[in-house]
Specification:
- It is built from 26 helices and 24 strands.
- The longest helix is centred in the first third of the chain and has 64 residues, at 90-153.
- With 823 residues, the protein is α/β, with parallel strands linked by helices.
- The protein is globular.
- Strands 9-10-11-13-15-17-18-19-20-21-22-23-24 form a 13-stranded parallel β-sheet. A five-stranded parallel β-sheet has the order 2-3-4-1-5, with helices on both faces. Strands 6-8-7 form a three-stranded antiparallel β-sheet.
- The protein starts with a helix and ends in a 12-residue tail after the last strand.
Length: 823
């Protein structure tokens, strides 16, 4: 029974009344009864506060209060015995008096010992939680602009800044699009509220609908609703499950949220006793949203007592979900409004539009929001002849006997078919990445540059075109600096559009396909690959998504023309595929571990065969000791190490980076906490242009000869809090354009001769509170145009600004966004 239920029964009040009677009748129990009356009069206001606060207590606190309640209940029974005991039975009255004294001591101990400790624990907990929360908030908004500003100088121009602007536009566009869903969205929110908020008998409810019908949009808008947030006291957890989830990790996330401990170890074991206890005591004021659920067996494992569950799926799961809202397709009026918003930028048909063609197009979309948005975007600014052709293609792609998914693919395929050939190929490449995962912008751009023979600016232009066609979404991560954010801008894609890319890529014989892709995470390689492994594969891109792989799990395959290999996995150990040795043309290798801890890579020696590799992305893996694994990547130009353990590979004093990577021009090391020192051999990398070491909290010093990097243009040292000084030699970096030292909170000064950096155009030194003066040479920074700093430091630059009228000093505003706290 919950604590509030114990007190709601007025146990304490009942006991108090009985004790007053005992104090007047029984001389042996009078002293204990009077002391208990005093204690209970102290307890009653506390009881009322707990009863009406609605606060859900931690398990240990609830256990102690339950024991107190049981003691009070025993006190009621003891008081009854005292009142009914004959005053002449001295022996019995003596024993009852002893029990009354024991009860008084228990209650007294609770008041005098445990209550003050509870209060102290609450105070300390609140102080810690508040400090931690505000620390996170304090950096979030500021890191966003700092990192975007830093990225804007890279990659030959301002296309990264354009990406950030585009992401903001897309957010605004999505908000405007919701208005056009009109009555349907409002009705859906109302119905789901009736099931989740107004009915206590429903613990699991569902939102059901076909792919692309707006289920997830409805679920997200429901969670933003003020009444819903108030009812659940902002305790709403939104999780994407997908077709190949890591169920154990999801279970720990949900359980941690329920018990108020979101930092549980991924290996935490949830006992049945805990489930029963919390299910009985927590109450149902927590909402867990499970989006994109595909399997009933998975759903069964993700349902917990003590909270309400909202399941968003294409399937109804009637044995589990007793109440479901089915998302209906848009009405003709709603469909027309959404289509016009996408195709013409207004909510109604413009006068110059061909009314018949517009109505026919909307009719062919069958009220499906995703189809309306994608097809509408593909027809924007096109000729009337193009519209007529599109209507004919849509009409031909509607076989009545085909299931919805195939019909949807055929309709959406018309938008892909009209894309320029290179843009279409880039869209199909997106099927190479796991479902429901954000794709780092750098990963995608680097891949396209290598396999499509284009420059970075053109690759980004293609991405913008896909975004304009509603085929991808650019997302600017609000949690700038979050430990799982290797870059600040990501690409996301609706799962139906990803399925479309897979559908179009998987046409034709498997050995002749341009892309060999695994649609979802599996425990082993597809059997179809094994059956056809006797013949070489013509795939340009190979994408694999598994759990742990050992040497015997791989099959022998020949990839003589493959240029990109993407290895997605979730485990603590991973044997690299032996067939890498048969990839002589491999230009881009992407290894991403989605487990919660770093993975040890076996068979690292296969890197020795990658003579043409130009781009390498390693995420959450342990870098081996290079002296034991002789590898020379002679043509590698770009390398990113994200959330990796690097002490073995880069922490050795004898590691010779120029010999290992003689042509490396861009090196990014992000969130590698065990990096303490950068190898001194890095100073001999004569082709290095971009060096980015970010969020490395253990980094305490840089090589003294860093100034020998004559070709270096960008130096990013963002969020390295233990770094106390910059080597004086950086003043010899005569080609440096950008210096980022933001959030290097222990950095005390800039080098005295910084004025020698005649090509330096931008400095980001926000949250560098220890820097209290500028070198006199700062006025000699003739090319400097942009300084980012805090208000407290900005005055240092005012004198410099007088001597340099073109200098812009950007003072960071601390503007917080707390929406991400509920993700």
């Amino acid at each position: 029974m919950a604590m509030t239920d114990f007190f709601a029964g007025e146990i304490a009040t009942e006991l108090l009344k009985m004790l007053i009677t005992i104090a007047g009748k029984s001389s042996l129990c009078k002293a204990s009864a009077e002391q208990l009356i005093s204690h209970l009069e102290t307890l009653q206001p506390i009881i009322r506060e707990i009863k009406y606060s609605g606060v859900e207590l931690p398990s240990n606190r609830q256990f102690q209060l339950d024991r107190l309640s049981e003691s009070l209940q025993s006190g009621v029974e003891l008081a009854n015995k005292v009142l009914h005991s004959s005053r002449w039975n001295m022996y019995k009255n003596y024993h009852l008096a002893r029990k009354m004294e024991k009860l008084e001591k228990n209650v007294s101990r609770f008041l005098q010992c445990l209550v003050p400790v509870h209060v102290l624990a609450d105070v300390l907990h609140m102080r810690f939680e508040s400090a931690e929360r505000f620390d996170r908030l304090d950096g979030s908004a500021m890191r966003l602009e700092q990192q975007l500003g830093a990225m804007s100088i890279g990659a030959g121009g301002t296309w990264i800044e354009e990406a950030a602007r585009k992401a903001e536009e897309e957010k605004k566009y999505m908000e405007d699009s919701l208005v056009n869903l009109g009555v349907g969205l409002d009705l859906g929110k109302k119905k789901v509220k009736e099931m989740l908020v107004e009915r206590d008998d429903l613990a699991v409810v569902g939102i059901f609908g076909i792919g692309g019908s707006g289920k997830t949009t409805l679920a997200r808008e429901f969670c933003k609703d003020h009444q819903v947030r108030s009812y659940f006291r902002d305790r709403i957890l939104f999780l994407t499950v997908s077709q190949s989830p890591n169920v154990d990790q999801l279970r720990v996330k949900i359980w941690g949220y329920i018990i108020g401990n979101e930092h549980l170890s991924p290996s935490y074991k949830i006992s049945e006793n805990n489930l029963r206890y919390h299910g009985y005591n927590v109450g149902a004021r927590i909402l867990v949203v499970l989006d994109d659920v595909w399997s009933q067996s998975v759903l069964e494992r993700l349902i917990f007592p003590g909270c309400k569950i909202l399941v968003v799926s294409r399937f109804k799961f009637p044995t589990i979900i007793k109440a479901t809202f089915e998302v209906e397709l848009l009405t003709q009026k709603e469909a027309m409004s959404l289509f016009c918003h996408t195709a013409f930028g207004q909510n109604s048909m413009p006068l110059h539009a061909n009314e018949n063609l517009v109505k026919q197009t909307v009719s062919e979309c069958k009220g499906l929001p995703l189809a309306l948005k994608v097809i509408g975007a593909s027809l924007r600014d096109q000729s009337e002849l193009f519209w007529a052709s599109a209507v004919n293609r849509l009409a031909r792609g509607e076989p009545v006997s085909e299931p919805h998914e195939r019909q949807l693919f055929e309709r959406l395929a018309t938008s892909v078919e009209c894309l320029p050939p290179k843009v279409r190929e880039c869209f199909l490449d997106l099927g190479s990445f796991p479902e429901d995962k954000k794709i780092p912008l750098d990963v995608l751009i680097n891949m396209w540059v290598e396999i499509h023979d284009i420059e970075e600016v053109e690759a980004f232009a293609i991405l913008v075109e896909l975004s304009n066609k509603n085929l991808v979404t650019l997302v600017k991560d609000e949690r700038a600096g979050d430990m799982y954010s290797s870059c600040l801008i990501f690409i996301t894609q609706h799962d139906v559009l990803r399925d479309l890319a897979l559908h179009l890529s998987n046409r034709g014989p498997i050995n002749r396909r341009k892309r060999l892709l695994m649609p979802r995470r599996e425990t082993e390689l597809p059997r179809e690959w094994d059956r056809n492994s006797s013949q070489p594969f013509d795939a340009q891109i190979v994408s694999i998504h598994t759990g742990e792989m050992e040497e015997m799990d791989w099959i022998s395959m020949d990839f003589t023309v493959a240029e990109v290999l993407i290895l997605n996995f979730s485990s603590n150990k991973y044997f690299l595929p032996p067939f890498i040795n048969s990839m002589p043309k491999l230009r881009a290798l992407i290894i991403m571990n989605y487990s919660t801890s770093s993975a040890i890579l076996d068979n690292f020696s296969v890197f020795a065969s990658l003579s043409n590799l130009r781009s390498l992305w390693l995420e959450k893996v342990t870098i081996p000791q290079f002296s034991k694994v002789p590898v020379t990547l002679k043509r590698l130009c770009k390398m990113s190490l994200v959330l990796c353990k690097v002490s073995s590979g880069l922490g050795q004093s004898d590691v010779d980076l120029p010999q290992l990577f003689p042509c490396l021009s861009e090196l990014a090391i992000d969130h590698c906490d065990d990096l303490v020192e950068v190898p001194s051999s890095i100073c001999r990398m004569t082709k290095l242009k971009h060096l980015s070491i970010t969020n490395c909290h253990g980094l305490c010093q840089l090589p003294a000869d860093l100034g020998k990097l004559e070709t270096l243009q960008i130096l990013r040292l963002y969020a390295c809090p233990t770094l106390k000084m910059l080597p004086h030699s950086i003043c010899e970096l005569l080609g440096l354009n950008y210096l980022d030292i933001a959030q290097c909170v222990n950095l005390s000064c800039l080098p005295e001769d910084i004025g020698k950096l005649q090509t330096l155009r931008k400095i980001d030194m926000s949250e560098c509170s220890q820097i209290r003066s500028l070198p006199n040479s700062a006025t000699s920074l003739k090319s400097l145009r942009h300084v980012v700093c805090d208000e407290e430091v900005s005055w240092l630059w005012r004198d410099v600004e007088k001597a340099m009228p073109e200098l812009h000093i950007q003072v960071e505003d601390k503007c917080f966004n707390v929406d991400w706290l509920n993700e």
